[in-house]
Design goal:
3 helices
């Protein structure tokens, strides 16, 4: 790895930090709307999912390795879930139909918490990479003194 490519580690980790932050924001929105039965679009809140894509870095990799190197990750889109809404019997609810059923959001808070833990761990892993790289660079500079 040449000197000009050495800092690509930080690019990859920072893209991961940004993507996981977006994922945590979307999950927090899902949890906040887990009981929302009426939205401006009509109907209950629909769970949102984050779509990631890898970023290919072609600048130096073609000359060095003859192919493409991963350059990180990016958020491509935030899409609504296609899962069915939950139908709950709640005759006293203001949004209940004539049979007393309410269409509830397709958000499962247990799944959302597991996703949040996963995103948090991925965020922590990217931070650890940045910290390790910073420490390695600091020690390298200390050798040259």
């Amino acid at each position: 790895m040449g000197f000009n490519r050495m800092f690509s580690v930080l690019d990859v980790s920072s893209s991961g930090l940004s993507a996981e932050r977006t994922r945590m924001d979307v999950i927090a929105g899902n949890i906040a709307n887990a009981q929302t039965t009426r939205t401006p679009e009509g109907g209950p809140y629909r769970r949102k999912l984050v779509v990631f894509s890898s970023v290919l870095d072609e600048e130096m990799s073609i000359a060095e390795s003859g192919g493409k190197d991963l350059g990180g990750v990016k958020v491509v889109n935030i899409v609504p879930s296609t899962e069915e809404f939950q139908r709950v019997h709640a005759p006293g609810h203001p949004d209940a139909d004539k049979d007393g059923y309410v269409m509830m959001p397709n958000v499962n808070t247990v799944y959302e918490m597991v996703d949040m833990m996963s995103a948090s761990r991925a965020y922590q892993a990217n931070l650890a990479v940045v910290d390790t790289f910073r420490e390695m660079l600091s020690r390298t500079l200390a050798i040259g003194r």
